[in-house]
Structure formats: C-alpha cells, structure tokens
# Entry
Amino acid sequence: MLRNLFTAVQNGDVYSLIAIIITSVILIFLCLPSHEFAHAWAATKLGDNTAKYQGRLTLNPLKHLDLIGTAMMLLIGVGYAKPVPVNMFNLKNRKKDMALIALAGPMMNLAFGIVFAFFNILFVKFVCIPAMLRGYINISLLNLYSVIQFALSTTAQISISLAIFNLIPIPPFDGSRILGFFLPDRVYYKIMQYEQIIFIVVMVLLLGGFLSGPLANMMDNVLNGIYWLLCLPFGGISSFGGML
# Structure
C-alpha cells in the first residue's frame, strides 16, 4: 500500500493517490478497529466484561490501533491492532468460549470483505459497464470511477486477507485460540509458553517475504471464490469482462 502511495506521488497521479488514501482510511479506521470490537463484543456476551471495563467495547479506532500493526498495514497490506484483554476465568466454558471470541474478529473482517466485494460488483455492473456501453464516459468520469472501484476492490481484498491472516493456527494469531479448542490442554498450554518467540519468528518470516507466496495464493483463491459466488446472481463472473 505504501509503495503504491509513493509511486502515485512520484508520478503525480492524483486520482491513484486519492484512491489509496481513501482505502487506507477505511482499513485503518474501520476494518482494524472492528476486528477488535468483535473480540470485545463476543467476550462480553460470553460473560467476561474485562474489555468493556477497559473501554474496548467501542468502534473508536483510537482505543484499538497499534503503531507497529498500523505501519505493517500500510507497508505490506496486513497488520494488527492492540489485542483485546480477555480473562478466561470469567468464561463458563473456557476453551470453547476462547475459541468463539477468537473467531469473532476474523469473521468481522470476512463480513466486511464480502460487503465491499458485493458493492464493487454492484458498482461495476450498474454504473461502470452501462456508462461504457452508452459511450457516456469521459476521462474525468473514468478517473472518478477508477478511484471508487479501486477503493472498493482493495478494501475487500485486504479485509479478506486480514481474516485469513488472523486464522493462521499458531500463536499469537486468533487461529491458535481456535486450534486450542481441539487440542488437549497439556499440548495447548505448552505451545502458548512459546507464544512470544513464535510471534517474533513469524514476523521475521513475513517481513522477509518468506510466507508471501503461500499466503498470497491462499488469499487469492478465497477472494476469487467469494467473487465467483457473489457474481452468480448476475450471470457469473465472466459477464464483468475482467473489470473486477
């Protein structure tokens, strides 16, 4: 994302610059905070008010954003916010409830991704394509449509990527808590003893690009599958002529 921003500035591409800024604002001030809000909401519903008492049961981004996680979002398109505190001793079924709380965050990102992908389809189908078929489009309008379409499609892509990224079944990602529901307590707590070390190793691998290929393939496959399903009521994805 940040690389695209620098390229747009260097090329003097005002419309690309606007599109990137809009997308970054949506992701940083909506998608990341909503992920943590979903954790806090699920924890509160399941009996733990720790996050609520610490002011985390809110969509206010200032309560959730983490400096390094936000920088990662801008640099590589995947980041994180401040973890929501959960006291498992307040939960009735600790392993099951922790798994549900962990699942809530990625599901929120997935929901946002699906919504933005759907709006992208609607915009292309009912605005862009009709305007092009009628020859009712000039360069200024085309640039405006490009800004809107870029913001919708990129937000959908990164939101879904966030969901998949957080479902990685190793600490400290949400997927490790979900995996913990299926593992014996002895094995799970042994793994969690090394959470910080595992986190550092994973961050090094991510920033070094060693996990980029497998994660990118997985994210592309999921995104393509979502678009394929969403496009079925409109005659299938081929009817959009590659505009998505």
Summary: DSSP finds ten helices and no strands in the chain. The chain has a mean pLDDT of 88. The chain has one domain: 2-240. Residues 2-240 form one domain.
